[in-house]
Design brief:
This protein is α/β, with parallel strands linked by helices. It is 37% helix and 14% strand. The chain has helices spanning 3-6, 10-16, 57-70, 81-89, 107-114, 131-137, 160-169, 182-185, 220-233, 239-249, 252-272, 290-296, 311-318, 349-356, 372-383, and strands spanning 74-78, 97-101, 122-126, 142-148, 173-177, 195-199, 213-217, 278-280, 303-307, 325-326, 336-338, 362-366. It has a 7-stranded mixed β-sheet, with helices on both faces. It has a 5-stranded mixed β-sheet with strand order 8-9-12-11-10.
Length: 387
């Protein structure tokens, strides 16, 4: 992307970065290169592409776009968010130590504890909302700190700059899962993060029709490492799904504005509802880290968790939703509602859920971009089922 485009606004970069008109036809959309291999003119002479596991023009366009939006130097897309997390861990060696936020998506500690530990990598889980917890957990063998902010599902905020400072004092890299807020609202690299991760399945795609993950790096070794992982392991994103994300990102700015506007209204409604005992949403003044959320993000997004009091109450409510869709995932144009204890965080076990405060009555909602009055009416009739 040219230097002039680097200085353009977010929405302009989302639409144009990596997506120049096709030089062959003038097509304004990046073509979907559904090819496994490429014709070569002679031995060692080709047009920059040899095999699609290694590189593909549609994937290249998406990776340029992702790096531009997060402010990184390179980006690498994978077949899912968990494939991206797995690629992140390939940076490490036997004996290395990782600090992870204790309240993250349940699939992350499942992969760390049940797969990565087999190769002699050690993990510690701490409450990263206090940077001193990170400092105390660092060992001579610590190589990486991985956080989510806001966390899934309790919406706890971590001070990215403070944790980055702690990490860099000790020669440790910081990776940040930015899935919930996207680079439209939060850009962790500007606060010192070394690597940013997304499940592109969520808000970046935005239409619940494809899986994907991305790692955005800031150093030459990130580019070299993650490109090598793509080549060696083959967990790359297909050209068609790259196209889906490129299509989704073009409307990211307008979608996130609406997600945020409706998210605030839904959170205020839930906070005032007599059958909801607690609401987790950084946009509420009652959230203990509301001020920090304002400092490091330009919006609060649409992810909300709230307490219904019991599994029976949660189930009674979730059975009655009509506009909201009961299901796993988040970030789609449709409102998605889920039950973390039996869905996204079932894998961490009952004891850990109790420690974190993920109760059987907790419900998580990803507020979509439907008419907010319809979302509120649906929640109102569903909450009426709670005893």
């Amino acid at each position: 992307m040219s230097d002039s485009k680097q200085t353009m606004g977010f929405a302009t970069r989302a639409i144009h970065a990596g997506q120049e008109p096709d030089p062959l036809t003038g097509a304004v959309n990046v073509p979907i290169y559904l090819t496994s291999t490429y014709a070569q003119e002679e031995i060692g002479k080709h047009k920059g592409y040899e095999y699609s596991r290694v590189s593909n023009p549609t994937r290249d366009a998406l990776e340029v776009n992702m790096a531009a939006l997060e402010g990184g130097t390179s980006a690498h897309v994978f077949a899912s968010g968990m494939a991206a997390i797995t690629a992140l861990i390939t940076m490490l060696r036997t004996g290395d130590h990782v600090i992870c936020g204790e309240n993250v998506y349940g699939g992350t500690p499942r992969m760390f504890n049940q797969i990565a530990t087999r190769y002699g990598i050690e993990f510690s889980y701490v409450d990263t909302s206090d940077p001193e917890n990170v400092r105390r957990a660092i060992r001579p063998t610590t190589r990486l700190v991985h956080i989510e902010t806001p966390t899934n599902p309790l919406m706890t905020i971590t001070d990215i700059r403070a944790v980055a400072d702690v990490c860099h004092e000790q020669g440790v890299e910081l990776s940040v899962d930015n899935t919930f807020l996207t680079p439209y609202f939060q850009r962790p690299i500007e606060f010192g993060a070394d690597i940013v991760m997304h499940s592109t399945t969520k808000f970046l795609n935005g239409h619940s029709d494809g899986l994907g993950g991305v790692l955005v790096g800031t150093k030459p070794e990130h580019k070299e490492t993650f490109a090598f992982v793509q080549k060696c392991t083959g967990g790359i994103l297909s050209p068609f799904e790259c196209y889906l994300i490129l299509r989704g990102v073009k409307t990211l700015a307008v979608r996130m504005k609406q997600h945020d506007e409706s998210g605030r209204k839904v959170a205020e409604y839930l906070a005032a509802h007599p059958k909801v005992s607690r609401v987790y949403y950084p946009g509420l003044a009652s959230h203990p880290q509301h001020a920090l959320a304002q400092q490091q993000a330009s919006g609060f997004g649409s992810m909300i968790a709230f307490e219904t009091g019991s599994l029976a109450n949660a189930n009674a409510m979730l059975k009655r939703v009509k506009v909201c869709t009961l299901g796993e995932s988040l970030g789609g144009v449709e409102t998605l509602i889920s039950h973390p204890a039996t869905m996204t965080h079932a894998a961490i076990g009952e004891e850990m859920r109790a420690k974190l405060g993920i109760t059987d009555g907790l419900v998580r909602i990803s507020v979509g971009i439907e008419d907010v009055e319809d979302i509120l009416a649906d929640l109102d009739q569903a909450l009426a089922a709670i005893s």
